[in-house]
Amino acid sequence: LAKRHLNDKAKAKIASVMPNDLTVDAGYMDAHRKDKGLEFAYSWHNYMMDKNTFEMDLNYGFCGGNAITGINQTEEYFKQFDKLDKENQILAIRLIIHFVGDLHCPAHVWKQRVVQRWKCFIDGKDVGSFHGYYDSWADRAFDGKTPAEAAEILDTATKSQYRRISKGHAMDWAKETAKRCFVIYELNPPPANDPTGRMDL
């Protein structure tokens, strides 16, 4: 989806820097989250929102930051992108494409996060963990289609809608996701304090 909205200048710049296609590197920070030199971004995968005020909980990731502060920090480096060496240009792109995605995953609103061991069932069928179910929804919904084909189907917003979306920022997007997340957990309440429990979605 993001690739479809890059202008020619951005496409050329990314192509001159990145060793892989963006769809390959989008998952880089998950695969390398424990690598030496990347520990700083470990807490960036998640964030906390207060259910009543939709204010960010500053205590989560206080020193390491969270998905919101991580995106903000990375954006500052993009403002001086040409001053970065190639290694850090690659890292900046990997950070932004990964954590903007993480920011929009309901399982990453940490206060509401479902423990991985909780099994989820739909119509009696085990569909894995709640987090895993969200991470793999596109594979099921668009079975047999390429990422580009799936993106074309999903990419239905108008130009004016995209302009409005792009005027938003990490905090705006986080609040929108949190609002949907709280509804999701009201519809699908996790088992109370039971790490061996199950959720019937």
Brief descriptors of the model:
globular, mainly alpha, 10 helices, 201 residues, 6% strand, 3-stranded mixed sheet, single chain
List strands and helices in order, with pairings.
Elements: H1 8-17, H2 22-25, H3 28-31, H4 67-78, H5 86-103, E1 119-122, E2 125-129, H6 130-135, H7 137-141, H8 147-154, H9 159-167, H10 170-187, E3 198-200
Parallel strand pairs: 1-3
Antiparallel strand pairs: 1-2
Helix share, percent = 40-55%
Distance between the termini: 28 Å
Q: Report the oligomer.
A: single chain
Instruction: Write down the secondary-structure element order.
Output: HHHHHEEHHHHHE
Which secondary-structure class do the elements indicate? Answer: mainly alpha
Shape: globular
Indicate the low-confidence ranges by residue numbers: none
Report the strand count.
Answer: 3
Biggest β-sheet, characterized? 3 strands, mixed
Compute the CA-based radius of gyration: 18 Å
Spatial strand arrangement across the major sheet: 2-1-3
Tell me the strand percentage band: 5-15%
Average pLDDT metric? 88
Structure annotation, total helices: 10
Walk me through this protein's architecture.
The chain is mainly alpha-helical and 201 residues long. It contains 10 helices and 3 strands. Helix 4 packs antiparallel against helix 5 (86-103). The longest helix has 18 residues, at 86-103.
